[in-house]
Amino acid sequence: MNKKLLVYCLTAIFFSAACIIKPERKFVGAPVVQYLNAQGQLYGLRIKTGFGFVDEAGKIWVVPDGVIIDSTSLPEQARTLAGSPYTADYRNAFIVHAYHCKHKQEKWLAIHRMFFEACLTTGVDEPTAKMMYAALYAYAPRWEANFIVDYEAGVHKRIITSFETTYPDTTFETDCQWIRNTNPSLDAIDARLKGSLTFTQIRKAPR
What we know:
This protein has 207 residues and is α+β, with helices and mostly antiparallel strands. It has helices at residues 3-20, 76-82, 91-103, 108-122, 126-139, 169-182, 186-194; strands at 26-28, 33-38, 41-47, 51-54, 60-63, 68-69, 142-150, 155-166, 198-206. It holds the Pfam family DUF1353.
């Protein structure tokens, strides 16, 4: 076989295989954390060593060292399903989710879906992980990012518009039973919950 043709064929095979091989979902590193207490109440974590999570698409979600996170991004409905995010097995998934919700550099839905994958990686069973995802979809903060031009300063400003969601608790209980019984896809969960959600804009702020 012609040498150039052989190289071409091997290159094609390599890239075809690379496209077929699915990225491994995993945590990279293990965080060392400091528990933060006030008047005997645990209110947050200081991440003393950074780490990250690689999702199924190969995207790396990094948490740098030195940051402080709390549980404001994780609604009570999710905590009820799997325990305290500070001490439960899914803690590392919670840390990555909390950091990225706080800094809002990614879309809220992408962060929530990453959390679902990260929960599975920590050993949370699939039905529980999907119910926790549903809790985020129904109750967790949301935001939109837009850019405006400040002509006087000659810069683009990133404006974050934040929203609160309202969702009936009794409806969510029914949704959880449906998830247990049918094991739906995340897209199906989104479609089911979307119709019962209401939104309230709470603020706009430059980032």
